[in-house]
Amino acid sequence: MFYENKKVIVTGAAGFIGSNLTDKLLELGAGVIGIDNLFNGRIENLDDAMKNKNFQFHKADVRDLNFLLEICEDVDIIFHEAAFASVPQSVKMPENCNDVNVNGILNVLNAARRMDVKKVVFASSSSVYGETPGLKKNEEMRRVPISPYGAAKLACEAYMYVYYHVYGLKTTSLRYFNVFGPRQRDDSPYTGVIAIWFNRARNDQNLIVFGDGEQSRDFTYVKDVVQANILVGEKDAAGEIINIGAGNPITLNNLGKLILKLTGKENLKLEYTDPRPGDIKHSFADLSKAKNMLGFQPKYKQEEGLREYFKWYVKIHNLNLKIN
Ligand code: UD1
Known about the structure:
This protein is α/β, with parallel strands linked by helices. 39% of the residues lie in helices and 18% in strands.
């Protein structure tokens, strides 16, 4: 088993994606050092991990280089999931977004290089594509980000490549397409639309759509994103940038209808308001490279992922809501 006796770091380990990845790595036998500044992350997300003797947690910030240097000794892989992760929030606070994302990755890369970490895997974003023409995005396309967040993620990808090219550090960037699932924050206006709309539906509130709802997204279940990270750890994809999505886009209008159907709230409506600044129109992953290079195959269709996520939510919050 590849991960047995491997020592890995997960940054953003208490976050939505980081904690799901941490649990999987522990299940596969890795020793995991999780770090998180608990700004967005929640320590409860690590309840299971904390019971595992192969897990260590540190409340720390990726902008603290000295701390990173301390924990990188004998580490095989760093999975860098810590981020300032919201498009609209980046429009309000571009400097913070840059500080966390760009200075954060520089620290991670410098610590990895100085401490001889073998590989760094980075959580990039489909937002780097911005307003490229056409629906399906492949990695060769021009990237024209239209939000500070997209610009910062693109700068991070550039640094990832440079540290491979100049210093020989094995780096791989994964461009995630709209990840959703268990542990996504449900209490912040900056969280993903699925978490926001599920909350509204269960509280009998109409769903608010920014724009005409004809924008589309390739919503990806978190377990598929975890699968992709696990594969990158095992395979050689140094210097590469790879899309990770569901390969199955849906318009916001159809997503809204699906959420109302699954929650049995078809009496509620979609309510339309102004488009959101920084929003891209279409985002749909071409997964050819992920399939060829990693053997990645998404396992969850959106409806299955939504059902599993809502059932999980209902169970842990003990809600009286039937998911169809
Ligand atoms: C999301 C991620 C980002 C990631 C990117 C690409 C979140 C918070 N952001 O950005 O980290 O890099 O995907 O994978 O997960 N919308 C509504 N009504 C609402 C909320 C949103 O209509 O109440 C619309 C938005 O205008 C947008 C779409 O839903 O068109 C998706 O928005 P959101 O979930 O915030 O994700 P992205 O901005 O695409």
